[in-house]
């Protein structure tokens, strides 16, 4: 099996704290998530990052990985016994306690016992029929502001924390889901043992601001770009919202940084009223001027007594 340096994958030192590991993972997950990064190699890189994080965030898995290196999965769950969890103490076939003692003593292992020479009659620790629920797992769900606001059905691709293989899941995203919330997918986590039920998968929601909207609590912020003359003279302007564009009145003498508030046009709130939308004025000047525009600006500069303070 090819050795995977999980610390190197996340870009952390071997003695990194749990917080440092989580911080490194979140930074890389945002950068390489397939829904955000369309590079052909992004999905594979995202799988490696997720696999590394799933191991290093778990203290027991991390200790096993540090001790056994590339063979850590064979010893996962072995505790201090030194035997892999798949080691069969039942004495069947060529594996197990019986064959282990055969290799030491050259005989038939235990004698005079139950099946296979095991005097305890099967698994001496009583584990053979223990139905155990599989482990819960976590993954990152990166959404745009618009996706989080409207919710709805969606298919996502995540890397299996155990195998690293990509799997596609269908889920229903609740409208108005917020950063930091978790979406629980029952039975989509780790597989159970001895026929036990699978664990649950918890998706940690991250909402990324984009070029249109920035989310702060339940309020949305967006930029409203104006020319200098429209800002000075006043105008009607169009502001984008989550639903549709609306027209607002911009007062004469408006400066950059001024905010126009649109009540109830912000992020939906499942437990109450939606937030507000704030359109912040950004005055933009032309990169190139025509001869006539330059002449007019020069005339304005000569006659105007205005001095910014």
Word description of this protein:
The strands form four sheets. Strands 6-7-11-10 form a four-stranded mixed beta sheet. Strands 1-5-4 form a three-stranded mixed beta sheet. The protein starts with 5 loop residues before the first helix and ends in a 6-residue tail after the last helix. It has 309 residues and is an alpha+beta fold. It has nine helices and eleven strands.
The SSE string, one letter per element, is HHHHHHEHEEEEEEHEEEEH
Strand order of the largest sheet: 6-7-11-10
Percent helix range: 25-40%
Compute the number of strand runs. 11
Which regions are unreliable across 5 or more consecutive residues at pLDDT < 50?
79-128
The rough form would be described as elongated
Give the amount of beta strand, in percent.
15-25%
Q: Sketch the major β-sheet.
A: 4 strands, mixed
Radius of gyration over C-alpha positions, nearest whole angstrom:
31 Å
SS element count, helices: 9
**Mean of residue pLDDT?**
79
The end-to-end span amounts to 68 Å
Class from helix and strand fractions:
alpha+beta
């Amino acid at each position: 099996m090819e050795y995977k340096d999980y610390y190197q994958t996340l870009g952390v030192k071997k003695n990194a704290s749990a917080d440092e590991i989580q911080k490194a993972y979140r930074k890389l997950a945002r950068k390489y998530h397939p829904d955000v990064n369309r590079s052909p190699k992004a999905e594979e890189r995202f799988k490696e990052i997720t696999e590394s994080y799933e191991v290093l965030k778990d203290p027991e898995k991390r200790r096993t990985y540090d001790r056994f290196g590339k063979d850590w999965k064979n010893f996962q769950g072995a505790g201090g016994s030194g035997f892999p969890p798949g080691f069969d103490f039942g004495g069947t076939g060529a594996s197990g306690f019986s064959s282990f003692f055969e290799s030491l003593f050259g005989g038939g292992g235990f004698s005079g016992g139950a099946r296979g020479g095991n005097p305890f009659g099967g698994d001496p620790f009583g584990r053979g029929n223990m139905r155990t629920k599989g482990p819960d797992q976590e993954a990152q769900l990166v959404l745009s502001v618009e996706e989080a606001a409207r919710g709805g059905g969606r298919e996502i691709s995540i890397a299996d924390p155990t195998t690293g293989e990509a799997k596609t899941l269908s889920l229903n995203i609740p409208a108005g889901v917020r950063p930091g919330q978790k979406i629980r997918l029952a039975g989509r986590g780790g597989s159970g043992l001895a026929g036990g039920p699978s664990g649950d998968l918890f998706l940690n929601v991250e909402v990324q601001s984009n070029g249109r909207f920035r989310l702060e609590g339940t309020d949305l912020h967006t930029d409203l770009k104006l020319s200098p003359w429209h800002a000075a003279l006043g105008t009607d302007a169009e502001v984008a919202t989550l639903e549709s564009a609306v027209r607002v009145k911009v007062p004469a003498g408006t400066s950059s940084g001024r905010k126009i508030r649109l009540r109830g046009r912000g992020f939906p709130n499942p437990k109450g009223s939606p937030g507000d939308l704030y359109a912040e004025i950004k005055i933009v000047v032309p990169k190139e001027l025509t001869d006539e525009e330059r002449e007019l600006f020069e005339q304005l500069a000569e006659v105007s007594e205005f001095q910014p303070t």
